[in-house]
Amino acid sequence: MAGPAEPLVRARWFDGRSSQAQRVLVGFAPASPGQRGPDLLMHPLSGAAAAGPIRVPFKAIAWPEAWSARRVQRTLLVDLGAHGSLEVDDGAQWHAALAAAGARVSLVQRMQTRWTVLAAVVVVAAVALGLFYRYGTPWAATQLTRQVPMGWETDLAGRALQELDARYLQPSTLPADRQAALRQRFEALAQQVPAGLQRYPGYAPRWSLQFRAGMGANAFALPGGTVVLTDGLVQRAAAKGLGDDALLGVLAHEMGHVIHRHTTRMVVEQGVLNIGLGLALGDASAIVSTGSSLLTGLAYRRNHEGEADCFALALMRQGGLPTAPMADLLVAISGADAGGGAGPAGAPPRKPADAGGAWTTLLSSHPDTVERAERLRQTHSGSC
Ligand SMILES: [Zn+2]
After folding, report:
1. pTM value surpassing 0.90
2. Is the domain of 251 the same as that of 195?
3. Which residue of 31, 122, 229, 323 has the smallest Cβ count within 10 Å?
4. Cα(253) to centroid of ligand 1, in Å?
């Protein structure tokens, strides 16, 4: 509370309700430990005087600058937030009283004074933005992905497959019994996904294996549990003398994308990133987020491939199935295998997803095939 030794400053107080100023004497309560500055105490000189001093907390006050005693304004206007405002005739007296109360120079005041502090603040802000981008976005995306309902995923998958069917895919020409045999193995494998491999507890995809032609040798996963296998991949495996374990390994990899909800995560991450950068950067966000979303898209996708591979390794091992045939098949379809030769009747495009337009990002691409194949060939999976 205000003691008699405390220097008091004359001021006019506008309480924000009445246009009439009240004459007050202003003092400062010494800053208590942990507080960044003193509270302000107003002693009304008339009217409400009997009620005692009015205390305005430090945080509510827009403290006026004190960056140069020589250039201090004679009359100070102090915004007290909900408590109205103060007009102080003698600014120098105000600052002297403030210093006597032990007030430290605030960061904002220092920023206005010293460009080095300002530069440091800019650097800290940039680092914070970088950390948000690197760690905050994936974290927030995981939390949000948990909330995305299965219906949203199956809806998206349905529309994606419709568009792909209309534009790029053709009905499969695999014999029905061949399809049935592969589907049976796919479903048996899906039944075996242990709880330990679930990224999102309780997430239960509606597994469905679809056969299509017209996209070269490929397989991809749609959110919600639909996995598409092309005739080209089945034929390629056969041409390489690889059994169905190779195809099953690829399907297990695609199941990994489903279990990790990679497509949903990418959509959610995009949203989080755009909103986060929008908040941080305001109008500049459009440009920055476009660039950074391309970068995150690529970086995340590489790590998605790793996650899907680890899932496939674990699931295949659980089912007592070999992973080396899958590695051989990956190398064969990547073109890294020189003995591959030309495909029948016109080589299929190497990266069919390039033609996928808006849906390209929804499909899993498979970079770094050779490295991945090496890892899949090893029985132990150290990096998983
Ligand atoms: Zn993949």
Report:
1. no
2. yes
3. 122
4. 6
Question: What is the pLDDT averaged over residues 275-298?
Answer: 59
Asked whether residue 159 falls in the same domain as residue 76, the answer is no
Number of domains in the chain: 2
**Do 224 and 320 lie in a common domain?**
yes
Distance CA 114, CA 118 (A): 7
**261 falls within a domain:** yes
Distance CA 109, CA 67 (A): 7
CA of 64 to the centre of ligand 1 (A): 58
Whether residue 96 is found in the same domain as residue 159: no
CB of 103 within 8 A of CB of 38?
Answer: yes
Which candidate, 213, 214, 228, places its Cα nearest to that of 175?
213
Residue 64 falls inside a structural domain: yes
- CA 131 / ligand 1 centre spacing (Å): 27
| Tens-digit pLDDT profile for residues 318-364 | 999 999 999 999 888 876 544 433 333 333 333 343 333 333 333 44
In one-letter notation, the amino acid at residue 370 is V
CA of 73 to the centre of ligand 1 (A): 66
Answer yes or no: do 259 and 154 share one domain.
yes
Rounded to the nearest whole angstrom, what is the distance from the C-alpha of residue 313 to the centroid of ligand 1? Answer: 13
Partners of 88 in beta bridges: 11, 76
Report how far ligand 1's centroid is from the alpha carbon of 114 (Å): 52
Among 76, 105, 134, give the residue marking a domain's end. 105
